[in-house]
Amino acid sequence: MPNPQSLNIPHEYVVCLDHVGIAVPNLEEAIEFYRSAFGWVNHHQETNEEQGVTEAMIGPKDLKSTDGMIQLLAPLNEESTIAKFLEKKGAGIQQMCLRTNDIDALSEHLRSQGVRLLYPEPKIGTGGARINFLHPKDAGGVLLEITQPQA
Ligand code: MC0
What we know:
Blueprint: E1 14-23, H1 27-38, E2 41-48, E3 53-59, E4 69-75, H2 81-89, E5 92-100, H3 103-112, E6 123-124, E7 130-134, E8 144-148
Parallel strand pairs: 1-4, 5-8
Antiparallel strand pairs: 1-5, 2-3, 3-4, 6-7, 7-8
Bound molecules: (S)-Methylmalonyl-Coenzyme A.
């Protein structure tokens, strides 16, 4: 297993924290929880069949483009990774996602360091972004997503 201390990721590839993903059993209830607690708004909502999720990107009303958001993730069906997560661990933080400006170069670098990426090629994520995930055992126990938004 690679040492997370020595991943040596070229810093120019990483733009910012894109989002922290939270597994929730009910999307509407979770949106309402954050709205009433912090006044946060739902900036974007979509269903991703391949990932088995329906999701909402929430955060303060006035967001800068590099402000990290919270991604609420509810399962679409029982086979969903989110359904499995909820069953094993209950609602809570499921992943952290970094935004990159070059997912291909970053992926190549990570593989050269022995890091396992979950997909051989990026898949489609929020808003049409290209995404992949580092295995949590290779990223300090965190399911780390990398995302390159659509140009
Ligand atoms: C599992 N493990 C985790 C974890 N899930 N550790 C930290 N955070 C998590 N979320 C740990 C387990 O505890 C276990 O450790 C080890 O990893 C292997 O787990 P497993 O039980 O064998 O594997 P599964 O079946 O739980 O799958 C885990 C895996 C899966 C990460 C492979 O969740 C996956 O494929 N995730 C990527 C896709 C995904 O998460 N999609 C939903 C978000 P021990 O020590 O017990 O062996 S979609 C999304 O995010 C998109 C829309 C987007 O943002 O654009």
